[in-house]
């Protein structure tokens, strides 16, 4: 697994990273977000959804576990697994059905179910100061192998400029 490690020194840079990632997403893709509470998972998701043309307010699905948003070209199924008590509950959320229907899955706390999504873009957030975040972007599964190289190159150029 290859990794692109980025330092987003501001909310604006995090948003630009989300916009870059959004430009590479396709129906049925899975984006797993990991990191401590307040590390930037929901902030990233809001920016990602905005870049995908979601017009409604994007909120954390902490209590509902799943929110669905219609974008210009993609439906985004945004899940938060923090309160998931058993891996078996994952089936009840209907994420597989949404994906089969062409939705993009954005899963916060994806590290809580490490074997459930073998094909995914994985984005890990770590605090690196007041507004700064260390963002590690990696992939797993054959569908991401070629696309990841392009995404990583664009992201590195973005934060170095």
Structural class: alpha/beta
End-to-end span in angstroms?
26 Å
User: How many H/I helical runs?
Assistant: 5
Give the low-pLDDT segments. Answer: none
Overall outline: globular
CATH class: Alpha Beta
Number of domains: 1
Description:
- 32% of the residues lie in helices and 27% in strands.
- Helix 1 (11-22) runs antiparallel to helix 5 (142-160).
- It starts with a strand and ends with a helix.
- With 161 residues, it is an alpha/beta fold.
- It contains five helices and seven strands.
Task: Please supply descriptive tags for the structure shown above.
161 residues, alpha/beta, Rossmann fold, 7-stranded mixed β-sheet, globular
Give a quick summary of the entry.
By secondary structure, the chain is an alpha/beta fold. Helices cover 32% and strands 27% of the residues.
